[in-house]
Amino acid sequence: MSGSLGRVAAALLRSGRGAGGGGLRGPGVRAAGSGGGGSGSAEQLDALVKKDKVVVFLKGTPEQPQCGFSNAVVQILRLHGVRDYAAYNVLDDPQLRQGIKDYSNWPTIPQVYLDGEFVGGCDILLQMHQNGDLVEELKKLGIRSALLDEKKDQDSK
Q1: Distance CA 47, CA 15 (A)
Q2: What is the pLDDT of residues 35-83, one digit of tens each?
Q3: DSSP secondary-structure letter at 59?
Q4: ω before 27 within 30° of 0 (cis)?
């Protein structure tokens, strides 16, 4: 599976889809700081995941993901036109990195939360993207996937 994820991430990058205008960060993406000491506590993590509709814990930043899986998550969100989300770089804070794994009981990074609920990592988000579930989950949050507009444009041609 990891080989296919890497190929998807590479294909998304090659296509340049969703890269946006001037730079990689969309207008609403907040590369949030880790908050310093004690950032791995369950109470603080609970507050972080519930603060925004879409929250991602990744290696690196949305502008410079530091692993292929984090990059794939950023690209999938970009592809759907998700511009307003909080991103936390776990490489900045070892307590945050371990704390989020303990909080979710999920051993890997990246981790995606929608409306305070843990969705999964890159593989789950990719699967949701492929089967259409991500469009529906975003809709529940009041976020219209850019893929719906793209499909409408293609249908009108």
Answers
A1: 36
A2: 444 467 899 999 999 999 999 999 999 999 999 999 999 999 999 999 8
A3: S
A4: no
* CA–CA separation, 153 and 119 (whole Å): 29
Assign 80 to helix, strand or coil: coil
Please give the structure tokens belonging to residue 109. Answer: 């990074």
Are 39 and 33 spatial neighbours (Cβ–Cβ below 8 Å)?
A: no
pTM: 0.77
- CA quadruple 87, 89, 93, 95: dihedral sign: positive
**Which residues lie below 8 Å from residue 38, measured CB to CB, with a gap of 6+?**
44, 95
Counting every residue written for the chain, the total comes to 157
Cβ atoms of residues 109 and 58 within 8 Å: yes
Average pLDDT over residues 129-152: 91
> Which structure tokens are listed for 32?
């949030």
How far is CA 98 from its chain centroid?
A: 18
Instruction: Tell the burial category of 42 from Cβ atoms under 10 Å away from its Cβ (0-12, 13-18, 19+).
Output: exposed
Strands (E), the chain: 30-32, 54-58, 86-89, 111-114, 117-120
